[in-house]
Amino acid sequence: MVMAPLAAFVIAISSVRTRRGSVNTAMLGALVTLAATLLVGWGLAKRTTGFSASYVYLTANVGLSGPTVFQNFEIDIVLHADHLTVVALAVIELCVIGVLGWHRIAGRNEPGPARFQALISALLFGCVGALLSTDLAELFMFWALAGGATYLMLAHRWGDEAAARSGRIALALPFLTDLFLLCGIAVLYSRYGQQNLSLLVPALHTTAGWTVRQIVVASVLLFVGVAGRMALWPVHSWLTGTATTAPPAASAIAAAVWPVVGVTVMYRLLPIFVSSNADTMRWLVIACGISGVLAGLYSLVSMEPRKALILAGAGVTAVGTAITIHGFQYRGFTFAVAGLAWVYAAAPARAAGALAASNIVNAMRTEEMREMGDAWMRMRSSAAVLLGVAIALAVSAVGALAIGVDSRSRFGITLGEAVFVIALAAMRVFLVTSSGPLRRRRAFDPDRVRDAPRQSLGWPYWLVLGSLVLSAASLVPAWLTFLDNGKHATATAATYALWLAIAVVGLAAAALPVGRYKDGSLRASSWLALLPDRLESAGQNVLGRYVVNPAVRIVEGTERLVPAADTAVGRISHLSGRYTVAALHAGDVGVLVVMAVLLSLLVALLSPGVLR
Amino acid sequence: MTAAMLYAFAALTRPSPAPSTVPGANIFTSAFILSIGIWAPVLMAFVIGVLPNPRGRYDTLIKQIAFFTNLIVLFILFVAYNQFQNFLPTLQYEENRQWLPAIGAAYHLGVDGPGILMLMLSALVGIISVLASTGIRTRVRSYFALLLLAQSCVTGAIAAHDLFVLVLFWSAATVPLALLILGWGGPRRDAAAWRLVGYWGAGTVALVLAVAGIYVATGGTSFDMEVVLKAPLGARAEVIIGLALVIAAATRLPLFPLHGWVRDVYSDAPIGVVVVVASSASRLGAYVLLRVLVAGEPDGAKLLAPLIAGLAAITVVYAAIAALRSSDIRHAAANLALVPCGVTALGLAALTPLSIAGSVLSLFAGGMASALVVSVFATLSDRAQTRNAMVLTGLAARMPKLAWLTVLAGLGVLGVPLMASFTANEMTFFGAFRTQPVGAFAVAAGLALTAIAVAVLIQRVLFGPPNPDAPAVSDSSLSETWFLGLMAGALLWVGIVPGGPKIPGTDTPLFDPGVVNQMVANIPEIASPYSGTATP
Lengths: 612, 536
Hints:
The complex is a heterodimer of chains A (612) and B (536).
Chain A: H1 3-14, H2 19-44, E1 51-61, E2 72-81, H3 83-106, H4 113-132, H5 136-154, H6 161-192, H7 197-203, H8 212-230, H9 237-240, H10 248-274, H11 278-301, H12 305-327, H13 336-364, H14 375-378, H15 380-395, H16 397-404, H17 410-434, H18 454-473, H19 477-484, H20 493-509, H21 511-516, H22 518-585, H23 588-606
Helix pairs in contact in A: 1-2, 1-4, 2-3, 2-4, 3-4, 3-10, 3-13, 3-18, 4-5, 4-10, 5-6, 6-8, 8-10, 10-12, 10-13, 11-12, 11-17, 12-13, 12-16, 12-17, 13-15, 13-16, 13-18, 15-17, 15-18, 15-20, 16-20, 17-20
Chain B: H1 2-11, H2 33-50, H3 59-83, E1 92-100, E2 105-111, H4 113-132, H5 140-159, H6 163-172, H7 174-184, H8 189-217, H9 225-228, H10 235-252, H11 260-268, H12 271-296, H13 298-325, H14 329-336, H15 339-350, H16 353-384, H17 400-414, H18 420-435, H19 437-463, H20 478-496, H21 515-519, H22 523-527
Antiparallel strand pairs in B: 1-2
Helix pairs in contact in B: 2-3, 2-5, 3-4, 3-5, 4-5, 4-12, 4-16, 4-20, 5-6, 5-7, 5-12, 6-8, 7-8, 8-10, 8-11, 10-12, 10-13, 11-14, 12-15, 12-16, 13-14, 13-15, 13-19, 14-16, 15-16, 15-18, 15-19, 16-17, 16-18, 16-20, 17-19, 17-20, 18-19, 18-20
């Protein structure tokens, strides 16, 4: 499972030169990985414990005194596969295969084909390693590798200035959150001397001198680190910022894969969060809930279909994470895994949505939803995919919400609002692009609009189908039992119906404004979008004015000052040398006279009553 | 000449009686391994210096002599590295001869774990610097003689276990390097050379004051590190001596604000000199800090730790912003080369066993990364005939080998996984968070800025649209690819197998016992005064 994508990467960068060869290599690597994953899954079918393998990567004896745990530093490659890991990997691999299949045809004009496919294999290698890791240092290693590959994929169009500029955000923001993750791991190590989760978790409250504060700090750092890569609002801009400049396949894979990896890693780290305190857990849940609602609202006002779908998906991820964390808040929890099942179900739909939206954007040659329309007649396949995506994103919530949330609680109401808004936003994308007239523009003839090449159209469909299957599975407690080997209670039919109704109402609610007053609703969206844009600009201005610009000015000033100071010191040295030489040549009397005059002046100036 | 060297070499060696489990070990041993490593280049520098070379007729022979001298030194030190017993806390390959009994100075050499790692770095750098200097055409004899002398001084400073000898080698290294810059540097070579002399001279003065302080405070009878660094001094004395050592280290490593020589030296020195300065010569600053302050002045080290951590954090953040704002690629690379210095200093400031170990590994990894990034951009600017980042765009398609090496250099500075600097950074951060969490976080933030700077620089220079107005470019030559590839390869090797490759199915090391395994010898002893900070 680990070596297959690595081998595909090595082959792709070393010997493959043609586009077709590179696609085939990447596809073969993904298929072999999927086959290995299914094989491991089959082997796990009758087991309750997972498979493990361990290799020593680094061991260093650094101390002879002090606590034993700090005397030896070891990083082990510990690979552990359980049911949850296998399902997460299968979802990721299916998304990658689907996107690769689409990219094989639709991405023919992308530059650097061999490089791109190699990066997909590298990303898959990193994701597999991260999901199989139980050693935190090892996890971070694979996480960072996958992050590097993601950045290179998103900034793939090197020759394009806009792509390069947006690629910098795709590097800086996730890298910063990755450093939060590293700091969280370092804080835990600094207290407990452990990186292996299976040894760390039992030691959290049993190691002498432990404090709640340290665990809280570590938990927050870890949460921010994982949330950044999951692109939860407000750290989503690395994904939305590159939605229009990155290759569609890269955006699709990033949007689909990282939430799955992130939420699974979050699930593994939750025992650490639980060990902090109830307040921390509560605030994390609240943060995820707010993130879900706001991501949905942002999606509602977004005027670019790809960004709108990314934000809707970010809302799904946030709410699913909220349910997962909420599930750990109480002893005897059983529904945390339902949140994971929801995120897994939504992942293929997110990939499909990114691909279908880019088909429409490319065909209609505009990124503004105001200028789109009539895709249902002219590009029915892609439009149908968008409809399927909206349904999948909305319906995938039902199982998790029914099992995990009380509809009458404030938490339930918040999450219900989030699901409603997300359904509304996702459906809005479909309705805006598919209905209404497609107007003629300068150098654009609507009659020439065609869907993507036929051979690429099937892949988004399969992804949507996969999403719907996983959504249906998430309704079945046996599926949840398979995921975490735990007992799960079934919700009542009425509960399922209630949450389904919320999702359906959300989907239907989009039809009213868009169906009857499309232009008006889009005008309202763009007007409402001004406020967050202005807030964002204001925030950037403040940051630039009070942090970035002063720092840059200080550095530039120092860069000028240091050589000037060196030159001045050099001149003074040179001058003093010349005076010394002159003094040597002068007679003793001359030197004595000069010294006497200078000393007199000094004494006179320092004497009281002279200057005062 | 070669036969004479081999005969002398064989005469000084004898087979070792003790068996070893490392394949390839026990080929030979000698009582003078370290002296061979120090004085063989000096001897060959003298030979090159007196060799007649009418109208450059023997330029190639001179280069070959320099190359094979370094190759033999590398071989000897590699064998020493392989035979190094990492479970012994004492010095190995020790040589101790009375020299100036009146003042207590002795010719005392020896290495422990950090020392053997630095020796390997110095030996590798020797070969690499010669390969990087194959393009020298004028006054070849003088150039390679001075280069060999510089390498000898660095090796001597690493191996010295007497403070007097250390100061001598430390200060002597400045002279040949300054002459090399003055004689063969770029347009601003005068400024570069004098800045180097000024800063390193000031650092030498600080080191002399520190050593003199230690000497006087311990009775004025010996300079031997085994004696003076074990003698207890008062906290005040340790702080004052420590301050002087920090100034000496900050001028050499360097650290903000004593980094003024970096930009000019790294951008105007010949590439072979840049490799020596950026890797082994500059790491002497941190090495002396480790050897003297951390190992010998624990009270002073603890009191000065926040200062060093602060300087480290400011250095990294400053370097990242300066690299981001720079339009001269060699200036940008010079600033990027400061980033590993900050990480090394953070590890020493944190004063935990793990952070000290991370700092030691960072001496090797950071040295290689700094040298690689500076020399790759120097080569790139030479090949592209300009240093202006606004003019240079889209070079990757026309310079594929240099493009790859540039990307690897950027990744090495950042410390991404599979690079040696990643392991060093992880160990440093994991150790530093216990005692210097703010400094560690600030350095981490600086690394995020560095990532942006690297991305902007690489994208602009390598991957933007080609500029039709830019001068014609050519890819790197064979020797350039080799010397850059050796540095990148060293980073990847230690990053992929830090514990050394093993024979499959066994724990027997395969020709490399592992950098991390060898470097930890004596680190527990060095860190023992600080192990109390490990107590939760």
